[in-house]
Design a protein that fits this description.
Blueprint: H1 29-37, H2 40-61, E1 67-77, E2 81-93, H3 99-165, H4 171-205, H5 229-237, H6 240-261, E3 268-276, E4 281-289, H7 295-362, H8 368-402
Antiparallel strand pairs: 1-2, 2-3, 3-4
Helix pairs in contact: 2-3, 3-4, 3-6, 3-8, 4-8, 5-7, 6-7, 7-8
Keywords: Signal
GO molecular function, one term: efflux transmembrane transporter activity
Protein name: Transporter
Length: 410
């Protein structure tokens, strides 16, 4: 009876011994690209790029088009008779010098902003995918540990019951073993449920990503030879958020200059042909119209200058936020990796302590309740290790995505 539990903890899922750079635990890269490229948020952002290009083309061409105006009159003059009269005018407005160039700048920077926002949309979709991915793998990892523990406790209870039948053990031992099994079964049900929910969430958001019925194991966290600090610098240099904010600031600055020039309105030039008194009087002329700008145009120019200043401040804020992301990504990856190392050391110590408890139980120095407690502590240690391993992998891969070293090519 006293040797029943000698195989419990070591029969649990074994922790990988060495880090392997190739064992990333990530889905297939080609499948990920398909899943990201077909995500609705990415498709919408790319459609906005097409819209920005069309808008830039419209700005380049200008909003003025040729207008045709015609009029026909039937006039009756006493003692002279009836006369057919008409006039015809062809007119078009023209942008004053410098305005067309500013319109093209606004369009160009707007396209640059939209393109960077599209890349950032893919970035955000990648972060969503990796978060759901590690949710699934982490829950499945704990579910495997818990299933193994349930199997161990079931075998132990069976052995205890056999001893009770042979009157070689007390019923209390069987009750304690059954309680340990019930507790382990409850944990197994919870972890299995979490794994199912995590898989469903991942599949719902990324249906193009083919998922197996069981998740792959969470690998040992891998830190590059150069460390994690270089990735932090890449988060800053590869940020599409900063590029988009800078492009918007430039577009708003160009628009402010454009609205400032628009305080002097554009002229309209027209060619006029007319016929009066049934053709006895005919002529042609040139018409020019100059709208006189007033307070409305001045107010619009002031609004654009204020919006340009706000866009400049937003660009500075974007730099602050990206720097925060880079710093927190690096700090979290480091401390999550360190925590996993400590938890793994704790697991080894727990297993060594359990071995001593088993020896003491076999020699009659401790009772079954103490041994069961030790077994439970080792079970919890395996669960903590899998949780810490998943958290470390989550933090490291997030840093790799934010630095555009994973899934995002520039």
């Amino acid at each position: 009876m006293r040797k029943v539990f000698l195989t419990l903890a070591f029969a649990l899922i074994a922790v990988p011994a060495d880090a392997n750079e190739k064992d990333t635990g990530l889905p297939d890269a080609a499948a990920v690209q398909t899943a990201l490229d077909t995500h609705p948020s990415v498709l919408a952002a790319r459609a906005r790029v097409d819209a920005a290009k069309a808008h830039a083309n419209a700005l380049s061409r200008g909003s003025y088009e040729v207008e045709v105006t015609g009029r026909y009159d039937k006039r009756r003059v006493d003692f002279e008779g009836d006369f057919d009269e008409y006039n015809f005018e062809l007119s078009r407005s023209f942008r004053l010098p410098g305005k067309a160039a500013l319109d093209r700048k606004v369009g160009m920077y707007s396209v640059t902003e939209a393109e960077n926002l599209a890349e950032d949309a893919k970035h955000q979709a990648a972060l969503m995918l990796i978060a759901y991915w590690w949710d699934w793998l982490g829950a499945e990892e704990q579910a495997r540990v818990d299933r193994q523990a349930v199997g161990n406790y079931q075998r132990a209870l069976k052995a205890v019951m056999r001893r009770v039948e042979l009157r070689d053990a007390a019923q209390l031992d069987a009750d304690q073993s059954a309680a340990a099994l019930a507790s382990a079964s409850s944990l197994a049900e919870q972890s299995a449920g979490r794994a199912a929910v995590a898989r469903a969430r991942l599949q719902a958001h990324f249906p193009a990503l083919a998922l197996g019925q069981t998740a792959p194991s969470v690998p040992v966290p891998y830190v590059p030879e150069r460390g994690l600090a270089p990735l932090r610098e890449l988060v800053l240099s590869n940020s599409h958020e900063i590029a988009a904010a800078d492009a918007r600031a430039k577009a708003m600055s160009a628009k402010a200059d454009r609205d400032g020039k628009d305080r002097m309105a554009d002229p309209t030039l027209g060619l006029r042909l007319f016929s009066e008194r049934g053709g006895m009087e005919r002529g042609a002329g040139v018409a020019i119209t100059f709208p006189l700008g007033g307070g409305h145009r001045k107010a619009l120019a002031s609004q654009s200058r204020a919006e340009a200043s706000a866009a400049q401040a937003d660009a500075q804020l974007a730099r602050f936020l990206v720097r925060e992301t880079a710093d927190t990504d690096l700090a979290e990856a480091r401390y999550r990796y360190s925590i996993w190392q400590r938890v793994r050391e704790s697991l080894s110590a727990q297993m060594a302590a359990l071995e001593k408890q088993r020896t003491g139980y076999s020699q009659g120095e401790i009772d079954l309740a103490d041994l069961l407690l030790g077994e439970r502590m080792v079970h919890d240690a395996f669960r903590s290790e899998s949780e810490a391993r998943t958290a470390a992998m989550r933090a490291i891969t997030r840093l790799r995505i934010d630095s555009h070293q994973l899934w995002l090519g520039d």
